[in-house]
Fold this sequence. Notes:
By secondary structure, this protein is an alpha/beta fold. Helix content is 44%, strand content 16%. The protein has an 8-stranded mixed β-sheet, sandwiched between helices. It is globular and about 50 Å long.
Amino acid sequence: xxxxxxxxxxxxxxxxxxxxxxxxxxxxxxxxxxxxxxxxxxxxxxxxxxxxxxxxxxxxxxxxxxxxxxxxxxxxxxxxxxxxxxxxxxxxxxxxxxxxxxxxxxxxxxxxxxxxxxxxxxxxxxxxxxxxxxxxxxxxxxxxxxxxxxxxxxxxxxxxxxxxxxxxxxxxxxxxxxxxxxxxxxxxxxxxxxxxxxxxxxxxxxxxxxxxxxxxxxxxxxxxxxxxxxxxxxxxxxxxxxxxxxxxxxxxxxxxxxxxxxxxxxxxxxxxxxxxxxxxxxxxxxxxxxxxxxxxxxxxxxxxxxxxxx
Length: 310
């Protein structure tokens, strides 16, 4: 009898957590800020993307975080379309794209980028990428028949030696977050609206007064749209998405440049590392911005970006 009561209580608890997860996801979908009107049916899932304008192709790749999406380039794409054919996409596990619950790796995203450029753009293009997605662009540049003409990185991130190691603890943690109910619940707690709000105030923007509730809601909604991004969140947290790009810099054959937020921590270290590439062309700083200068000060960002494009 006692065992039956414990089983019943456990079942009710799991059911309660399941409905709580569902409630959180429905509540999070306050708005859909994606402008990804097209679908690319990739081998690992549907990829949502946008295409606008006419001219030399430019591909904009958002940062690789659980709340990121093509919303990151919302203000930039409309400015570039006057002279360029502009593509943006929601990476697998992000925004409106499919979000399979498995382990995401740098190699997976490099393959996505290679296939997307070949199948959708079908032409050489400039790539503008931000944050940890800069690792993806650098590794793509080393693939056979790479179609990138230039790589422009925004606040590039270099993984530490610790982040390149996957421990036994990381493996167990990654397995836990992939559990359907408890893993979803734990990931939802880590990716609450309050958590995204703190990211904007502590990491993303320099000017607190420039932060809007729409931006926070866009990231929170992107995490919950079309399922949650818990698989990607866990893969990032447990070091599966990083790779050592130091060797890639030495082998790079296309122009590489940096646009940085003036208040981005450790950006000088990243730039000094980029300078080891023979094809490095320089770095430009956007004053009074931090990790997302293209969202915080889009007009100033476009003025710097335009002369760098083909």
